Amino acid sequence: MGEVRGGCCPPMDLLRSEPMQLVQLIVPMESAHVTVSYLGDLGLLQFKDLNADKSPFQRTYAAQIKKCGEMARRLRFFKEQMLKAGFSPKKSTTRAGINVDDLEVKLGELEAEMTEINANGEKLQRSYNELVEYKLLLQKAGEFFHSAQSSATELQRENASRDIGEESLDTPLLLEQEMSTDSSKQVKLGFIAGLVPREKSMAFERILFRATRGNVFLRQAVVENPVTDPISGEKIEKNVFVVFYSGERTKNKILKICEAFGANRYPFSEDLNKQDLMVTEVSGRLSELKTTVDIGLLQRGNLLQTIGDQFEQWELLVRKEKSIYHTLNMFSLDVTKKCLVGEGWSPVFATKLIQDALQRASFDSNSQVGAIFQVLQTKESPPTYFRTNKFTSPFQEIVDSYGVAKYQEANPALFTIVTFPFLFAVMFGDWGHGICLLLGTLFLIIREKKYSSQKLGDIMEMMFAGRYCILMMALFSIYTGLIYNEFFSVPFELFAPSAYACRDLSCRDATTVGLIKVRPTYPFGVDPVWHGSRSELPFLNSLKMKMSILLGVAQMNLGIILSYFNAKFFQNNVNIWFQFIPQIIFLNSLFGYLSILILMKWCTGSKADLYHTMIYMFLSPTDDLGENQLFVGQKTVQLVLLLLAFVAVPWMLIPKPFLLKKQHQDRHQGNSYTQLQSTEDTFQLGSNHDSHGHEEFEFSEVFVHQLIHTIEFVLGSVSNTASYLRLWALSLAHSELSSVFYDKLLLLALGYNNVIILIVGIVVFICATVGVLLVMEL
Asked: Are residues 361 and 405 in the same domain?
C-alpha cells in the first residue's frame, strides 16, 4: 500500500499508524480483472495469500502469468537491443491504447522481425570483416611475392651476364645433365597465408618451428590499425603471415596450429596478375557489402525507434497485467467456481474509496452481479500503514530504511522531520552554503511538475525525490549558520558590533587574552571575535563539541521514550518498572549529569575541567573536586548518581525474567475448564488456547534475551554518546574546508593585480565549494 492518491480522506495522524481492518471481497469471475486493476490504482488494500499451500503452477492464473513473463522477456530483449544501438526509450505517462492479447501478437511479430534482421546483419557483418582481412592479406602478402620476384629477376640477370663469358668444355655436359634430370623428383614448395593475433604471433612462430623441426619458412607483416575479427566481432591487432612448407604432413600440422591459435586463413595465388584481379574484385564486393550493411542498420534503427516510442507504455501494461494476475492468484475459488474470494488489510478511512472502486469495476465490466465487501473480525496483528504526502514521504523512507514501526506505535518520522535536517545543519552550519542549497532546492520545487514527468538520472532522481527534505536541511543550515556566524567560513557583525575590543595593539589577533568587554553581549549567535585564529582551538569548536553531547543525550532520551510510547507496552507494568525506568535512570545518571554540568559551566562561566570530573567520578568518587566543583554538594550527588547507575544494570537484568515466568504460571494455572458463553467467546478462548495454552515458557531463553538487551543498552549508551561527537567532527571538517577554499583560492586570487588570475580563482573557488561542500557533503 502506498501514498493516497485520491478521494476524500480524514486528516493524517502523523504520530500513529492508520487504524487497519481485515476485509473480505467476493468478486464475480467476469469482473475480477477490472476490480483488482482499480484497487491497484487506489493503492489502499494489501491482500493476503489464501493459496499459500499451492505451488505457483497450481494456481488459477498460472497460464496468464507465464504469458506476461514471456512478454516481459521480449521487452527486455528489445531494451537490450536499444541500449546496444544507443537508443533510449521515450518516457510516456499515457496508457497504451492496445489490449494484452494484441500486444502479445505484436511483440511476437516484432521479435521475429528483429531476430531476422540481427541474423542477416551478423552474417553480412561477418562477411564484410572477412573481406577486410582478405584485402589486407592480398596487399601485405602480395608485397612478399612482388619483392621476391623482383629479387629473383635481378639475380637471374646477374648470373646470365656472368656466365656468358665463362663457357668451357664442361658446360655442355652440365646442361645435358640438367636437362636429363627427372622433373618428378624436383621439390615443390607450398604456402599458407592468413592473419594471426599479434599477441600470439611469437608463440605461433615458435610452435611452427618446433612442430616442423625448422622445415618451414615464415614471413610476417604488421597490420597498422586494429582489425575487427570476423568470429568474435572485437577489434584486435593482427599480423599477416605466409608460411612456406614442403609435404602434406607438414601442411596438416600447420593447419592444426593455425586453428589452435585462432589464425584466419584465406586463399592466395602466387601469380601477380591474379593477385591484382583479386584485389579489384574484393574491393568491389566490400563496397557492395558496405551499402547492404548500412541499409540493414538503417532498417534496424527505424524498427527500434518505433519500439522505443511505445516501449514505456508496453512495459507498464505488461507489469500491471502481471501484478493483477499475481494478486488474483492470492484469491480462492468459491464452491461454485463462479466467484473469487479475497482477504486483505485496508485502512479504516479507505472503506468508502474501496466500495466506490468496486462499484465502478462492476459497471465497467458489465457484470450483472456486484462485488461483496465486508469487514472481518480477527485477532491477527495488522500491518503498519502510514499515510504520506510529497513532503513527509522522504522522511518516512529514511525511517523505514532502518525499520518499520509496529502497528499503532509512535512514528519516528514525525520527529525526523525536525531532527534529521537539524542534525545535518549542525554539521553543515554556514548560512552562505545554506542559501546556495536553498536556491537549488527552490529551483527543483518550482519545476517539480516538469521534472515529475521526465526521466532523470540516478543522482538527480534521488535529489528530486528528497527536495522537501533538502529544503528543510537548507533552512536549518541557514539557522545554525547564523548561530555559528559563518558565511563561507567568514564571520560577520550582522546583528550588532562585537562586544569585545582590544586593550592595545598587541592583542589584535587574540581570541581571549587581552580582550575586554566594551559593549552589550552579541544578541544572536556567536560573537565574531570568538572564531579566533586557526592555530588554536577557538571557542566555537568547544561550543560545537559540547552541543553535540547535549543533542545526543536529548535524542537518546527521546528514543527511549518513543520506543515504549505505545499502548501495548504500558499494559504490562513489568516493562515500565523493570525496563523503561532503569534505562532512563542509567542513561541520565551518567550522561544526563554530564549534560547538566555543561549547561551549568556555560551559565556560570566556570573553568572547571569536565573531563577530569567525569573520569574521577568513577576512579576516585570520594576525592574532593577542588576547583572543578560547580555547585555545593556535588560530590554527594555524584556518589548517588554513580550508585543509581550501578543499581540500574541488575535492575534491568534480573527481575523481569522471574516476573514474566510468574505471570505465565498465574495465567495458565487452573484454566483447564472454562464456561463457554457464546460462539464468539468460544473462538476467542480457542485462539487464546492455541496461542498460549500449548506454549512452553523457556526461562533460559527469556533470561538470555534480557541479558543481551541489557548489555546492548549499556554499551550502546556509551558508544552512541561518543558517536554523536561526529556532529562536532564533521562540522569542524566542513568549517576547515570552507576556510581553506576561502583563504587559498579566493583571497590568494584577490592578492594578485591580475584580472585573469582573479577570474580563474573565483571560478575554482565556486567549483570547489559547489562540488565538495554542497554536492559531495550533501
From this structure: no
The CA-based dihedral angle spanning residues 266, 271, 273, 278, taken in that order and rounded to the nearest 10 degrees: -10
pLDDT for 168-181, tens place per residue? Answer: 444 443 444 444 44
- Whole-angstrom distance, CA of residue 188 vs CA of residue 166: 30
176 CB-side CA count, 13 A = 5
372 strand-pairing partners: 26
DSSP 594-652: HHHHHHHHHHHT----HHHHHHHHHH-TTS--GGG--STTHHHHHHHHHHHHHHHHHHH
| Residue 418 identity (one-letter amino acid) | V
Gap between the Cα atoms of 505 and 508, Å rounded: 5
Biggest distance spanned by C-alpha atoms of the chain: 145
Question: For residues 500 and 515, is the Cβ–Cβ distance under 8 A?
Answer: yes
Supply the range of the domain harboring residue 213.
122-160+188-293
Residues 367 and 397 in one domain: no
How far apart are alpha carbons 295 and 314 in whole angstroms?
A: 28
Can you tell me the distance from the alpha carbon of 40 to that of 51, in angstroms, rounded to the nearest whole number? 20
Considering its fold, how many domains does the chain have in total?
4
Are 303 and 170 a contacting pair, CB within 8 Å? Answer: no
Residue 641 lies in a domain: no
Q: Both 278 and 255 in a single domain? A: yes
Domain end point (choices 485, 515, 545): 485
The string of DSSP codes covering 637-698 is: HHHHHHHHHHHHHHHHHSHHHHHHHHHHHHHHTT-S------HHHHHHHHHHIIIIIT----
- H-run or E-run covering 299: helix 272-328
**Count of alpha carbons within 13 angstroms of residue 155, beta-carbon side:** 6
Nearest Cα residue to 476 out of 410, 425, 515: 425
SS3 state at 341 = strand
Mean pLDDT, rounded, of the chain: 83
Residue 327 clears pLDDT 90, i.e. is over it = yes
Grid look-up 521480449 returns: 74
pLDDT for position 683 = 34
- What CATH number does the domain containing 346 carry? 3.30.70.240
Task: Spell out a b/e string for 664-683, using b for 16 or more CB atoms within 10 Å of the CB, else e.
Answer: beeeeeeeeeeeeeeeeeee
Pair (499, 422) in one structural domain: no
Distance CA 252, CA 302 (A): 48
Residue 341 lies inside a defined structural domain of this protein: yes
d(CA 179, CA 42): 104
Query: Do 141 and 248 share a domain, yes or no?
Result: yes
- Residue-wise pLDDT tens digits, 403-433: 888 888 888 888 899 999 999 999 998 999 9
* 443 and 341 both lie in a single domain: no
Instruction: Please indicate, yes or no, whether residues 473 and 514 belong to a single structural domain of this protein.
Output: no
CA nearest neighbour of 78 among 28, 36, 38, 117: 117
DSSP per-residue codes, 194-253: EEEEGGGHHHHHHHHHHHHTT--EEEEEE-SS-EE-TTT--EE-EEEEEEEE-SHHHHHH
3-state secondary structure of 45: coil
Q: Assess if residue 761 is contained within a domain.
A: no
The full length of the chain comes to: 778
Angle between helix axes 412-428 and 467-484 (nearest 10 degrees) is 50
What's at 667, amino acid-wise? R
Last residue of a domain, one of 450, 485, 520: 485
pLDDT tens digit string along 105-127? 999 999 999 999 999 999 998 99
Whether 579 maps to a domain, the answer reads: no
- Mean pLDDT within 229-245: 89
Domain CATH number, residue 132: 3.30.70.2750
Residues 128 and 151 in one domain: yes
Q: Is 262 left (phi over 0), alpha (psi -120 to 50) or beta?
A: left
Instruction: List for the chain the helix, strand, coil content (%; round to 5).
Output: 65, 10, 30
